[in-house]
Amino acid sequence: MISDGVEDEEKWLTAGIAGLQQNAFYMHRALDSNNIKDALKYSAQMLSELRTSRLSPHKYYELYMRAFDELRKLEIFFKEESRRSCSIIELYELVQHAGNILPRLYLLCTVGSVYIKSKEAPAKDILKDLVEMCRGIQHPLRGLFLRSYLSQVSRDKLPDIGSEYEGDENTVMDAVEFVLQNFTEMNKLWVRMQHQNKGPKKRTDLNHFGIGQFWHAIGLSGLLGPAREKEKREKERNELRDLVGKNLHVLSQIEGIDLELYRDVVLPRILEQVVNCKDDLAQYYLMDCVIQVFPDEYHLQTLETLLGACPQLQPSVDIRTVLSGLMERLSNYAASSVEVLPEFVQVEAFAKLNNAIGQVIEAQPDMPVFGAVTLYSSLLTFTLHVHPDRLDYVDQILGACVSKLSGKGTLEGKATKQIVAFLSAPLEKYSDIDIALKLSNYPLVLEYLDDRTNKVMSNVIIQSIMKNKTHISTADKVGALFELIKGLIKDLDSGGDDEMDEDDFKEEQNFVARLVQMLYNDDPEEMLKIICTVKKHIMTGGPKRLPFTIPPLIYNALKLVRRVQSQDENASEETTASATPKKIFQILNQTIEVLSTVPVPDLALRLYLECAEAANDCDLEPVAYEFFTQAYILYEEEISDSKAQVTALYLIIGTLQRMHTFGVENRDTLTHKATGYSAKLLKKPDQCRAVYACSHLFWVEDQDGIKDGERVLLCLKRALRIANAAQQMANVTKGSSGSVTLFIEILNKYLYFFEKGNTQITVASIQGLIELVTTEMQSDTATSDPAADAFFSSTIRYIQSQKAKGGSTAEKFEPIKV
Known about the structure:
0% strand
């Protein structure tokens, strides 16, 4: 049935266009022969096609535009005739004899345009005559297009200041009156469209329906008909709204309308019509038009009048968008030049806008939270542009938002996104998190966000800090900041972390880690307080977060340790401070201990060794020994994976080798433990490599006291035995001798210590190893290994290069035969 209606409308439009074109043809023929009487006759018949009530606004517009094009040609003819013999006054009288009122008025407007141009009568009189006569058409659709045509042909002929049609007296008021009257009448017609009768309904003869056909005919359509009809009319009215709005645009273009005239006449008349029409669609659209078409400075000076109309609008009007649009325009106006800012202070713009928003929210208790937050967000943006120095205004807006949110529970959906934008505005404006920390109501607004959005806002805060390289330099500020971003550092009740993508989780935790690294204060005492504050907050993070957040805290604390140690060396012995290396190390020990229970023992072991090295730099032997002890305990009790054991053992050996603060007894104990762990690794190759790595524990170049050649040789021999055992196992399990890489690695260790001056490493032992490797590589059971071949060749080339150096080095390497 709907498709049938569309097809019928197309037929009516086609018929109307055909009739219009036919009469236009005869009109043109009459114009060509200068037959005014026939031209008027056929033009009236042509315009009669616009009397139809069958077309929708969209289709009627197509028909109207064709008629409009023909009327422009007719206007040109009238203009030429008025310059020749025909009197324009007689022509103006002649067109009023057309039979039907609608064609008569279109022709009258066309001739009236030429009449004004001729200047044979004051423009104001002709315009007044035309706008009054148009009252004769009260059909909403036909009346709107007629008055739109009047507005179109008269817009460049208004008696404005500087216009050629300006009279001797103050004719600007006449121009204003004409446009306002036309606007008022058009708005009335537009509003009336919602109550328009669409014509007689077809009567349904129920006797011709079966029972099933009857329910099909009236059941569904009977229920949904009124709703669909209303929706259709709303759509049609929306299509026509620009016809009404163009009047306001014309008003805004009148040069003679100064601030005084706008304030005393134009705006009150417009608002009177807006309020009195009591139509939500018209009120919303016209308020938006007023805001968009008139100058910003006029809005600022008439703010009280404009805002006073808002509470008088229908409750269903989207006043939120209207006010947001007004505040956006005023914000842009304020941002355009600093010279206009005193005007905002003078008219008390903030107080008026804040009061208006409060009244609107109070008058609409059912306004959704999203709407209220949008209003406050627009007011905040306005305030940040106009009063950037007034933090009390910003906090007042935040407080008002908290009041609106109270009792609403946790927010979701569009409201949360709007709050994120709302809270981000101060960060973007001030580029300093310190400002946000001064706003008492800022964290209160955050409380109403759901967990997911809380994380989003926390990310926004951290990224703002990083982007602006803001340094948070006091413990109090750090505590306040970490309260703001607790969505990222604290386990939440909703369990949202479990649903989160692993990469996203790592990224957000890395943001927190970077933030911790940025915390700094020149005063060691305050820096220690900052570290303690951060520790208190991140310890609530739970097992998933701690591996990300504890390491940056440890490294930041270690930087403080080295700074304090450097200051202690330069300070007098009498200075006393609580931020001592020992105290910091106690905090670090407690912090790392938490990691071992997460459990991430490999990370905890690594951090224990970092702390041990820092204690070594501070010459704190007992502290360093304690950290090593904790690392050994973790290795023995918590690390069971063979690969993790190998990695951990290399870390232990490497760190222990760099330690200089240990006495003989402590060093021997730790070294003995390390060599013992090496021999107990699961795989023989791992054992071999760990054992020969331990040889470095007995020969440290920068420490004269640690050069025990015999124990180095013992380690290397032990490694050789293990390598030989690995070779034999390969023969048993694989039927081949396997790779000789281990032997080549041990050979390189022999060469290293030989070159360093270890007298226990002899030429004979090196020569024996070279022969062993050569024999193994040439044996029938040897497995081809290009990497091992390249490694051995490189080793031989190194020996040859040492021989070629000359001097004592060449003399030392000369006995080695390669």
